[in-house]
């Protein structure tokens, strides 16, 4: 199993009080946990998109040879602008998008999304309790269309414009819905 993953990590974490991605979860750093679920699932190309000047020195998995850090020159445009940065660099198929602040997604869920995307060549949306979550699986065939989109848009809006079928897969993983916005989310 192969695939790329884009991890948008350029947010300021203002609601959290800053440095959200370096927060401790048990014996790990939040961003390390997010990266671990992707790497453990067999992702071969992991692109972490950060803000200018971001310091993630505590994140040990950034040293993994499968991980590449890129900078979004203007993250104020929103998360989709970071996703576009990652899409420009992605070279394998399929491509997953998992926001950096989602450390509770299981690697088995990542594997399921990759497998479904490889099998169907469609957009894959994991669902839990009837709600869409992450990671979202993208076939490389829509990469070119997404790269022409306005960086200020959203992934959801741009995926709808592609006309590619979106397939829901039900997963037994509440982590697909659980992002960290404030300290109490940990």
Could you explain the architecture of this structure?
This protein is an alpha/beta fold and 186 residues long. The chain has a single domain, classed as Spore Coat Polysaccharide Biosynthesis Protein SpsA, Chain A (Alpha-Beta Complex). The chain contains five helices and ten strands. β2 and β3 (28-29) form a beta hairpin. The longest helix is centred in the middle third of the chain and has 14 residues, at 107-120.
Mean pLDDT: 91
**CATH fold category name:** Spore Coat Polysaccharide Biosynthesis Protein SpsA, Chain A
Tell me the name of the CATH class. Alpha Beta
Strand neighbour order, sheet with most strands: 5-4-1-6-9
Spell out the CATH superfamily.
Spore Coat Polysaccharide Biosynthesis Protein SpsA, Chain A
- Overall spatial form: globular
Classify the secondary structure makeup into a structural class. Answer: alpha/beta
Count of strand segments: 10
